[in-house]
């Protein structure tokens, strides 16, 4: 989908304990965490393809998807309900020199894949995007 945006101040509430734990993981293991918000008009099904990556715009570095929460990996589907639905993607770390990156899902039906382009790097490597 081309209508993706990066959210600077999300409306969702994340458990402070979980957020603290995730931030620790980022600093200890160099992981990048992307919280995604997906809006549905009806009951539908979503999934993530393992070939979803982060691409540094200034180098040839690619960070691989290593874990996902509240969304299943292809070929399994996750049922979601009307309204905002949330899932989290965890990627291997980006190089320190990376200042802007793209999140791109690659799948058999590229029309159904999502892209979030030109995400500015922050000092926590925790991001919130609408897909």
Could you describe the 3D structure shown?
This protein is mainly β and 131 residues long. It has one domain (5-130). Helix content is 11%, strand content 43%. The longest helix is centred in the first third of the chain and has 14 residues, at 16-29. The model has no long low-confidence stretch (mean pLDDT 86).
**Low-confidence segments, ≥5 residues, pLDDT <50?**
none
**Tally of DSSP helical segments:** 1
Radius of gyration, in angstroms, nearest whole number:
14 Å
Q: Provide mean pLDDT, rounded.
A: 86
Indicate how many domains the architecture comprises.
1
| Computed structural class | mainly beta
Beta-strand residue percentage: 35-45%
The main pleated sheet reads as:
8 strands, mixed
SSE string: EHEEEEEEEEE
Order of strands in the sheet with most strands? 1-10-2-7-5-4-8-9
Q: Could you tell me how far the N terminus lies from the C terminus, measured between alpha carbons in angstroms?
A: 7 Å
Q: What is the total tally of β strands?
A: 10
Percent of residues in helices comes to: 10-25%
Nutshell version of this structure?
The protein is mainly β and 131 residues long. The protein has one helix at residues 16-29, and strands at residues 5-6, 32-40, 44-46, 52-56, 62-69, 78-80, 83-91, 100-105, 115-120, 126-130. It has one domain (5-130).
């Amino acid at each position: 989908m081309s209508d993706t945006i990066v959210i600077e101040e999300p409306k969702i509430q994340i458990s402070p304990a979980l957020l603290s734990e995730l931030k620790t993981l980022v600093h200890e293991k160099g992981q990048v965490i992307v919280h995604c918000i997906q809006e549905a008009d009806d009951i539908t099904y979503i999934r993530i393809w393992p070939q979803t990556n982060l691409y540094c715009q200034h180098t040839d570095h690619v960070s691989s998807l290593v874990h996902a929460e509240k969304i299943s990996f292809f070929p399994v589907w996750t049922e979601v309900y009307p309204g905002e639905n949330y899932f989290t993607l965890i990627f291997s770390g980006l190089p320190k020199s990376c200042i802007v990156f793209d999140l791109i899902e690659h799948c058999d039906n590229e029309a159904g894949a999502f892209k979030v382009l030109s995400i500015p790097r922050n000092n926590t490597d925790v991001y919130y995007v609408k897909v």
